[in-house]
Specification:
Length: 89
């Protein structure tokens, strides 16, 4: 009776807005919600600190983050994969 376990950890996709800290990136996650009264689509955003062990994610990259155990006072997420590389300007 081997059953495949599904991960109960949340995953989010967002853009790296800061990579200035050592082993930490700040990720901006935006979600689209409908206003309950006016029925207008609004964009709500949240910033998360994610652990980046090798320092491979740079400003502007789109990354996937997964929740984990608390790594510091504000860091409860780990950057797991690169979704899209930042465009060169």
């Amino acid at each position: 009776m081997t059953e495949a376990k599904t991960s109960l950890k949340r995953t989010l996709i967002g853009k790296v807005v800061s990579d200035k800290r050592a082993k930490t990136v700040t990720v901006l996650v935006e979600r689209r919600v409908k206003h309950p009264i006016y029925d207008k689509i609004m964009i709500k955003s949240s910033k998360y600190h994610a652990h980046d062990e090798q320092g491979e994610y740079k400003l502007g990259d789109v990354v996937e983050i997964t929740e984990s155990r608390p790594l510091s006072k504000t860091k409860n997420w780990v950057a797991t994969r690169l979704v899209q590389k930042a465009a060169l300007v």
